[in-house]
Write a structure and sequence with these properties.
single chain, 216 residues, alpha/beta, Rossmann fold, Arc Repressor Mutant, subunit A, five-stranded parallel β-sheet, two-stranded antiparallel sheet, 56% helix, 15% strand, DNA binding, phosphoprotein, transcription, Sig_transdc_resp-reg_receiver
Length: 216
């Protein structure tokens, strides 16, 4: 039986390139794709792929949240391979916590990507042991705030909250995270709602308090 794969990336040309690469391997079949987090969460449960290749940064969310959502909604859950253009410790931390089986930069070679899909389809892991050790150490030390409101935020929302605390505007945050200003505005509205605030100044004060608690 071929390995079935679902692709999530907001760039069509990237999805086409990855699909052609995987299909050429002979033992891998791409059964579906999506350009947004919402599309992926809606389509993956019905397709039940063996592997889901998820872009970390998306117009309407992030691949880490998609990984968490589909792994709780699909049984057996697909092995999730996070694919990103940027090295990001927080996203890596979130990916490990969400149950991802692998985390690769998009600079990976075609041969290595095919090998990665085969490895995680067989139940293997591509997470760097050192990175996993760092996550476990953070959990042991309790570096993650215990506030359930903060725990409800996605990794991307946490990054944006931190930048709000730094005094950045939506436009500046967008430039920092390579997001459209409208997308940042949607994230800010979402995180304010989750935290129970109505103004970003309240969120900034809250984030500053978290930093103080954790020695930041």
């Amino acid at each position: 039986m071929p390995i079935t794969v679902f692709l999530l990336d907001d760039h069509e040309i990237v999805r086409r390139g990855i699909a052609q690469l995987l299909e050429a391997a002979g033992d891998i079949t791409v059964v579906g794709e999506a350009a947004t987090a919402a599309q992926a969460v809606a389509r993956i449960p019905a397709l039940r792929p063996d592997v889901a290749i998820l872009d970390v940064r998306l117009p309407d969310g992030d691949g880490v949240s998609v990984c968490r959502d589909i792994r709780s909604a699909v049984s057996p859950p697909p092995a999730c391979l996070m694919l990103t253009s940027y090295s990001d410790d927080e996203a890596l931390f979130g990916a490990i916590m969400a149950g991802a089986a692998g985390y690769l930069l998009k600079q990976v070679t075609g041969v290595d990507l095919v090998g990665a899909v085969r490895t995680i389809a067989e139940g293997g892991s591509l997470l760097d042991p050192r990175a996993t050790a760092v996550v476990l150490e953070r959990l042991r030390k309790g570096d993650e705030p215990s506030d359930p409101r903060y725990a409800s935020l996605s990794p991307q929302e946490r990054r944006i909250l931190s930048l709000i605390a730094d005094g950045l505007t939506n436009r500046q945050i967008g430039a920092e995270l390579f997001l459209a200003e409208k997308t940042v505005k949607n994230y800010v509205s979402s995180l304010l709602h989750k935290l129970g605030f109505t103004r970003r100044t309240e969120a900034a004060v809250y984030a500053a308090g978290l930093r103080k608690e954790n020695g930041g």
